[in-house]
Amino acid sequence: MEITHPAFAAEAAARFAAFREAGAIDLILSDVDADGLSSAALLAGALDVPVRLVGRGMNAWTDPVAAEVEGRGLVVADLGMRGRALGDRLCVIDHHVPTGTPEGATVIHGIDLDPVPSTSLLAWYALGAPEERGWLAALGCIGDYGDKAGHLEVAPAKKRWGAGKLRELTSLVNAPRRSAAGDAAPALELLRAAADPAHALSGALPGLAACEAAREEVKAATAEARRAPPRFGARYGADVAIVRIDSPCQVHPLTAQSWVGRLRGAIVFCANFGYLPGKVSFSGRAPRSKDIVALLAEHRPEGADPAHYGNGHRQAAGGTLDHAAWNALMDDLGFGPEMRA
Questions:
Q1: I need a labelling partner for 203 at 20 to 30 A (CA). Which of 5, 8, 51, 269 fits?
Q2: pLDDT over 90 (residue 313)
Q3: Is CATH 3.90.1640.30 the right assignment for the domain spanning 6-214?
Q4: Cis peptide upstream of residue 115 (ω within 30 degrees of 0)
Q5: Which of 211, 231, 226 minimizes the C-alpha distance to 171?
Q6: pLDDT tens digit string along 72-83?
Q7: Residues 102 and 74: beta-carbon distance below 8 Å
Q8: Between the CA of residue 321 and those of 281, 288, 312, 327, what are the distances in Å?
Q9: What would the CATH number be for the domain defined by 226-339?
Q10: Domain map of the chain by residue range?
């Protein structure tokens, strides 16, 4: 497979090899979307270590997770990067906008590359870009960026393993974490057991049925959420829109994405009041000319937890706020009572 960033890939492989040689790796922490799950499947297959999924309402860089992994050798994949050390030895593989660098960590980070690789591509680079596992690298990339974002690895993967199969599998493994239960373990189980996308979709492996059921649940919740209209505030007018929904499913990112192409030039947030008790979970999408991370940083309300606010990509970021902090954010952005908790 052709490699988008060959010099970086070679450096990443050398850096990760040195990390492996320096001591034991006991655990992988990963996100629960297609990119995080693909990264975890790649790394766990090569390292033969367990995976700890960091899902709903959690953040890897907080005290509870730090206490859980104390003294262990860790690889943290697709969970952002902060100026905090975790475990005994740490390697961070990530592509989100960082808020710091953990002291002493091995870092494989692609934020300054163009196009920015998915974490799955970075993990694949770190493992020496094994050809037979290229479908997992492409799967995570499609999940985060689609299949036309300029990553050279995606086209040959589509040709070899089937564009339709890769898209179908991406949709399926993304579904469990968006369901009301939020349990992505079946999706990881499916990816770890599969030899390729056709094998994953064959019905012969555990996890597929749970992914299919979750997708149907999320499909219904998404259709309901898309009926909600966007609202505009006094401060930014047509440049910032918010859609308010109330769903136990994680459909706020999908809802924001569905509107950003229709409201051309606008940053669009979807605020979900039913996802976490006592909280407002929100997700934003923006055109390439805008920066959501910068906007949220400029308007950070008092009481916003840095671990749960304003993190992500420049064109895709969000967070979770308690009701008081959310109301303060709405006041600052010029939204009225229709958006208050």
A1: 51
A2: no
A3: yes
A4: yes
A5: 211
A6: 999 999 999 999
A7: no
A8: 7, 26, 15, 9
A9: 3.10.310
A10: 6-214, 226-339
- For 281-289, what is the mean pLDDT? 95
Residues, the chain, total? Answer: 341
Distances, alpha carbon 165 to alpha carbons 123, 144, 198, 202, in Å:
22, 16, 7, 11
- What distance in Å separates the CA atoms of residue 323 and residue 305, rounded to the nearest whole number? 13
Q: Where do runs of H (alpha helix) occur along 268-322? A: 292-298
- Both structure tokens of 136: 């997992």
- What residue type is 218 in one-letter code? V
3-class state of residue 214 by DSSP: helix
What pLDDT score does 196 carry? 98
Strands 27-30 and 51-53: parallel
User: Could you tell me where the beta strands, DSSP code E, fall in 155-265?
Assistant: 230-232, 240-245
Q: Both ends of the chain: CA-CA distance in Å?
A: 50
Neighbours of 95 (CB within 10 A): 27
pLDDT score at 92: 98
pLDDT digits (tens, 9 = 90+) for 249-273: 999 999 999 999 899 899 999 999 9
In terms of C-beta distances under 8 Å and separation of at least 24 residues, what long-range contacts does 147-150 make, across chains too?
149/115, 150/4, 150/115
